[in-house]
Write a structure and sequence with these properties.
The chain is of the alpha/beta class. It is about 35% helix and about 25% strand. The chain has a nine-stranded mixed beta sheet. A two-stranded antiparallel ribbon has the order 2-3. A two-stranded antiparallel sheet has the order 7-13. Helix 3 packs antiparallel against helix 4, helix 8 crosses helix 9 and helix 10 crosses helix 11. It binds uridine 5'-triphosphate. Uridine 5'-triphosphate binds next to helix 5.
């Protein structure tokens, strides 16, 4: 199994980040000096991904502009000798083969992924949710790809969360296969603590087989009236092998204000340009 394609669903409204997400795609929000989606694509590329499909929607054209060439800007930077800026600007446009498809109606994450059917074809593919920014030595999606290859299975990223917050996630029913890798036999979306199968929550990274498309096509609207990816995954784990990878690394939810601030602070503290200054600045405040 070789995984060279990734899908990034980015059509959602971002209601947890209003009012500014009304006209700015939340995937373009800066984390230090790069938009969030660039971290996601860098993680994919560092994991062997060559082709990336971004599922967009109305009001998201800043995403395709960002990954395009910008001839006037590039010529100005070149003429004024700002070569490292030029390299950065070009680098983001050449980062991968990027494709786009619109989700014309916001019918949920499962529906957004279903829109990737023609792009994906017959091979397993990665899915990365752009709200979930990872800080990890080994790219998280690479950890999943390796497990999917080893077990010839689909894979979901997981970590334990406390039962108090499990209702924000999908909970997994798992049995251990090896250190950090589990077999998945069931799952439920946004359960109450009493309904949860375990504290293992699905967190924003997946390797899926194309079987998922037929399952999603037959998935009825579920939680919140949306076509839920979890419902398709639940059917998938019952008809073929699925593993859960308790990945190494820290996951940030940059799709809500508190999580975004945590992401910004932690990444700024580690940044080679502003990290030392920022540590002193923050230290002076607390
Ligand atoms: P979320 O529900 O977490 O994100 O969807 P959202 O809808 O953008 O934000 P809130 O909850 O209103 O603040 C998870 C991922 O699925 C994508 C979102 O863009 C996000 O990356 N998504 C969701 C779609 O692409 N289409 C949809 O119809 C729903």
């Amino acid at each position: 199994m070789k995984v060279t394609k990734a899908v990034i669903p980015a059509a959602g409204f971002g209601t947890r980040m209003l009012p500014w997400s009304k006209s700015v795609p939340k995937e373009m929000l800066p984390i230090v000096d790069k938009p969030a989606i660039q971290y996601i694509i860098e993680e994919a590329v560092a994991s062997g991904i060559e082709d990336v499909l971004i599922i967009t929607g109305r009001g998201k054209s800043a995403l395709d502009d960002y990954f395009d060439y910008s001839p006037e800007l590039e010529s100005k930077l070149s003429l004024s000798g700002k070569l490292s800026d030029l390299e950065e600007v070009r680098g983001s446009a050449d980062i991968a083969n990027i494709f786009y498809v619109r989700q014309k109606e916001m019918k949920g994450l499962g529906h957004a992924i279903w829109r990737a059917k023609a792009f994906v074809g017959n091979s397993p593919f990665a899915v990365l949710l752009p709200d979930d920014i990872m800080m990890a030595d080994k790219p998280v999606i690479k950890q999943l790809i390796e497990a999917a290859e080893k077990y010839n299975a689909s894979a979901v990223g997981t970590q334990k969360v406390s039962l108090d917050v499990i209702s924000k996630y999908s909970s997994l029913k798992v049995s251990a296969l090896e250190d950090r890798v589990f077999k998945v036999s069931d799952m439920n979306e946004k359960p109450t603590p009493a309904e949860a199968f375990s504290e293992y929550a699905i967190l924003g990274r997946y390797v899926l087989t194309p079987e998922i498309f037929e399952l999603l096509a037959n998935t009825q609207p579920g939680y919140g009236g949306e076509i839920q990816l979890t419902d398709g995954l639940n059917a998938l784990c019952k008809q073929s092998d699925m593993v859960a990878v308790d990945f190494e690394g820290k996951r940030y939810d940059a799709g809500n204000l508190q999580g975004y601030l945590e992401t910004m602070v932690d990444f700024a503290l580690r940044d080679s340009n502003v990290g030392d200054w920022f540590r002193d600045f923050i230290g002076g405040k607390v």
